[in-house]
Amino acid sequence: MASKFFYVGVLFFGLLAFVDAKGYSPAQGFFVAVNSPVLGRAEDAVTLYAIHTNNHDADNTVQFKKEGGLVAHTVLDGQIKKGGVIFGCFLRVGLPDRYRGTRYGTYDATFTPGGSSMVVERYGFVRSRSDILDTRGVYTHTVWPASSGAKTPIDNFQDNNIGVRWSPGCRSIQWCKGKKRNVNTGPRLQLTSTDDAGVYTIRRGKRGARGWFVQIKVIAASCQRSEYLNTDDECVTRTYSIGLCENGGVVKDAADTCLCPPFFAGQSCANAVDVPAERDFVLAYNGDGDEAIRCGDLDGGNPKCRGHLFCLEDLYGCTCASGWWGSNCDRPCAKGKWGVGCSQNCGQDNPDCDRFFGP
User: Fold this and answer.
1) CATH value at residue 89
2) Contact between residue 284 and residue 18 where contact means Cβ atoms under 8 Å apart
3) Closest CA to 208 of 309, 131, 99, 96
4) Exposure of 290 by Cβ count < 10 A (0-12 exposed, 13-18 middle, 19+ buried)?
5) For 210-215, what is the mean pLDDT?
6) Which of 69, 164, 204, 232 sits CB 3.0–4.6 Å from 212 for a disulfide?
7) What is the pTM of this model?
8) Is residue 354, in this structure, part of any structural domain at all?
């Protein structure tokens, strides 16, 4: 399905993030947000939002697709619009009359700027609710080589396994990667090299065709964590003296800069949005005017982005917004934790720090 963005006002082009005069730091470029990415078999609908933070050309085109085709009752429902500015489009995935499991899987979104042949691709996930196939909120997993260059052994051995929560009620779990079937039969898969990259479908035996499956995308970096791939296809150390990215950000694969989580910005992702009292959570902003899209503006959206999965470009992948975790991104961080995936510690000096933006 395709849709045009219709826009009246000042136009902004480019794919780089920015921080405007008000301190807003939206997500970078084109991204996909999924509202309630985990569904029960009888739940009504899930919505995917394709949003561009700073490109509002009238001729932009967004298209959604899914392997096997979009199910019945799925509608490209309209534009994400505020104050005459079109920030993107949203896709409402309905409840099929039959074969309800066919709506689960990976949804791809493409963004084509008006008058350009460049196509930007992103993706999002929709999963079935299952106690047996529970990935504990993992949708994507990024791995880095132990030495420079692709197809090399992976570092950080202890972090390089993915899988599902085991249940005695499930005797057989099958792993598929593309057309390769049964690449693993246990609840966990050990990743050994960057060749392991790709989308894994984890099925519950013969019931996978009826929706009893989850998917995890393994993303492989070309270079080590502190390096990036330059235009000569060489892995070089970042020129910034700040080192690694902060607050859940990751170094871009082919650029000397960081990919920052939503609501963080800067060379090292150290700058949070400058609206801690209002909890504004700006996703995209029309920098020449006063229009901004926030999580609360989305159809059924929560003002604090509860229940939203955000998928940026690789190597970042998909995570919940800062302050939330879980398969449906609806569980608040525990006391003493904050940030993307609740992976940051408040520290002894401020044990009750803000779970969205920390100390």
Assistant:
1) 2.170.300.10
2) no
3) 99
4) exposed
5) 82
6) 204
7) 0.87
8) no
CB 48 within 8 A of CB 66: no
Looking at the 3D structure of the chain, how many domains does it have?
1
In a domain, 353, yes or no: no
- pLDDT at residue number 208: 60
